[in-house]
């Protein structure tokens, strides 16, 4: 391996922001305001809503696309990032990211389930799944904002008149230790809607320094963050690589792109292709196989393709987000019996020729994996 030190230069990047706070501190509204500043007046904002659609209450003043989840497996969030990228979302808000830690099907539940499989289960088996989710989140081609719930406590103090009063205070975010180190900016919101910057890589901007406070932070703060991060050399994003792969006309060009993707450790990032969610490396390899087949086929002639000759059932392709939507529904299923109607629906769609066989096979595989995982979870809690 040839290791070479090079001159460091700033890179143009998308924002990675983490907001924590007690219930009522304004996490969702602050995230929406910051997002609008990041993407501008016409950019698309997407919210992965884990709180029964509560974020939609703010949609009158802050329009956005939403994806409501009821089951919070790491795989569900991984698929959600792929669907968001495919939909052209400029800023993805995960509200709240805590659910993917301690919610139904989240990391803690996954660890418990893995422990039931043997003495070497638990975190050893769950960490790679979590890492895949984190890679998908931080590899998202747009901006990312996550919110975290904070564990509450109550302290007895005195007011200005010396009378006792009980005050609600935040203890620490309900999330794994050290998560904030993954982000460019982290901040805590109090019940007075004041944001205090607790971690920042934007150290040469006074309003973004650690300890800086902002009452009712809005779009202007998002613009400051976005402008600072955008100043630098632009590198290809996940969607840029997707377009490069699709436009490649030779296997050699694909090899170059593949090597660059692996060098940047982006090979596992999820994307949607023809309705399926797959890793970028798999997408490149599939395109390579297509190009190889094309080079091996003889040039078509008029006689080679008889006119009006039926070639078997013609299935209408599922829309691009269709398979991703089914993948999310499967990932959200809270119990095995909830998967049965989804399976019937899939088979019915195939029977009436509205779903290709390849899509059916893929989704049935995902469904069976989910059924196995749910059975493992049920056994762990029995």
TrEMBL record:
Instruction: Give the domain of life.
Output: Bacteria
A Pfam family (short name) is AAA_24
Q: Which InterPro entries match?
A: P-loop_NTPase
Q: Can you say what this protein is called?
A: AAA domain-containing protein
Which species expresses this protein natively? Sinosporangium album
């Amino acid at each position: 391996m040839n290791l070479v030190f090079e001159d460091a230069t700033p890179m143009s990047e998308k924002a990675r922001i983490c907001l924590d706070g007690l219930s009522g501190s304004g996490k969702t509204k602050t995230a929406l305001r910051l997002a609008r500043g990041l993407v501008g007046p016409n950019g698309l904002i997407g919210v992965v809503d884990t709180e029964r659609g509560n974020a939609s209450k703010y949609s009158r003043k802050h329009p956005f696309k939403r994806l409501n989840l009821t089951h919070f497996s790491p795989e569900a969030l991984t698929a959600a990032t792929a669907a968001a990228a495919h939909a052209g979302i400029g800023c993805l808000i995960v509200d709240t990211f805590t659910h993917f830690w301690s919610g139904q099907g989240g990391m803690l539940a996954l660890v418990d389930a893995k422990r039931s499989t043997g003495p070497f289960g638990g975190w050893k088996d769950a960490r790679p799944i979590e890492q895949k989710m984190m890679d998908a989140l931080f590899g998202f081609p747009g901006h990312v904002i996550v919110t975290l719930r904070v564990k509450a406590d109550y302290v007895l103090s005195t007011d200005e008149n010396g009378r006792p009063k009980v005050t609600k205070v935040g203890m620490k975010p309900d999330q794994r230790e050290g998560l904030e180190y993954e982000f460019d900016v982290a901040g805590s919101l109090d019940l007075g809607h004041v944001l205090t910057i607790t971690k920042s890589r934007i150290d040469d901007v006074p309003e973004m320094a650690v300890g800086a406070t902002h009452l009712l932070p809005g779009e202007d703060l998002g613009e400051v963050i976005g402008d600072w991060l955008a100043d630098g050399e632009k590198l290809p994003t996940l969607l840029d690589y997707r377009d490069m792969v699709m436009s490649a006309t030779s296997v050699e060009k694909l090899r170059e792109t593949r090597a660059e993707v692996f060098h940047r450790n982006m090979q596992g990032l999820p994307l949607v292709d023809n309705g399926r969610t797959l890793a970028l490396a798999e997408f490149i390899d599939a395109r390579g196989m297509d190009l190889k087949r094309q080079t091996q086929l003889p040039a078509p002639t008029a006689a080679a393709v008889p006119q009006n000759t039926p070639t078997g059932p013609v299935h209408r392709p599922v829309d691009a987000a269709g398979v991703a939507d089914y993948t999310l529904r499967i990932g959200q299923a809270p119990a095995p019996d909830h998967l049965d109607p989804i399976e019937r629906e899939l088979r019915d769609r195939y029977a009436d020729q509205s779903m290709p066989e390849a899509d059916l096979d893929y989704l049935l595989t995902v469904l069976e994996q989910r059924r196995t995982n749910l059975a493992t979870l049920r056994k762990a809690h029995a």
